Amino acid sequence: MVTITCADCGQQRERCSRQAKRCLPCCDKRQRMQTKQSIARRKAGIPPRQLMTHDQRWQSFAMRAVMFAKSVGALPDLDKGNIECVDCDAAAECYDHRDYARPLDVSPVCMGCNARRGSACIPEPYIEQPKRKAA
Ligand SMILES: [Zn+2]
Ligand SMILES: [Zn+2]
């Protein structure tokens, strides 16, 4: 668990991810508001706005891949606390990505080591290179 300062109500709250910007009640409120807004937009014929940045989309893709792998038993569940952090001897609490392009290439780490490891490599968007003329 990490303590974050909620961006909406300014309160110090415990969250499981240091990426969390808001406390759970505020997250909830926001999600409900966004759902309402997106329904209203859809009704008005306005296409849904891109809510996530490039980096966030990679993060959520990688997170969902790990969740899926856990659900089918390809990765052990860390909730039991019987898996050790690969960097220290503490119980691993989450899976750390080093490269979001390889979403299942993860190491079980504790929260402290996860923070020390910093963020994973985020693939750049594909940019079409101008074709080189044949010599
Ligand atoms: Zn809040
Ligand atoms: Zn550790």
Short recap of the structure:
The chain has 135 residues and is α+β, with helices and mostly antiparallel strands. It has 3 helices and 4 strands.
Low-confidence stretches: none
Which geometry do the CA atoms define?
globular
Please state how the strands of the largest beta sheet are arranged side by side: 1-2
Name every ligand kind in the structure.
Answer: zinc ion
> What is the alpha-carbon Rg in Å?
19 Å
Roughly how many Å apart are the termini? 59 Å
Major pleated sheet: 2 strands, antiparallel
Number of helices: 3
Q: Helicity range of the residues?
A: 25-40%
If you average the pLDDT, what whole number results? Answer: 90
Helices and strands: which structural class? alpha+beta
Strand proportion: 5-15%
Kindly state the number of beta strands.
4
What does this 3D model show about the protein?
With 135 residues, the protein is of the alpha+beta class. It has 2 domains: 42 residues, no CATH class; 64 residues, no CATH class. Strands 1-2 form a two-stranded antiparallel ribbon. A two-stranded antiparallel ribbon has the order 3-4. 14% of the residues are buried. The mean pLDDT is 90. One zinc ion binds next to helix 1.
Q: What are the key terms here?
A:
2 domains; 135 residues; single chain; 3 helices; two-stranded antiparallel ribbon; alpha+beta; 33% helix; binds zinc ion
Topology diagram in text:
Layout: E1 2-5, E2 12-15, H1 24-43, H2 54-71, E3 94-97, E4 106-109, H3 111-117
Antiparallel strand pairs: 1-2, 3-4
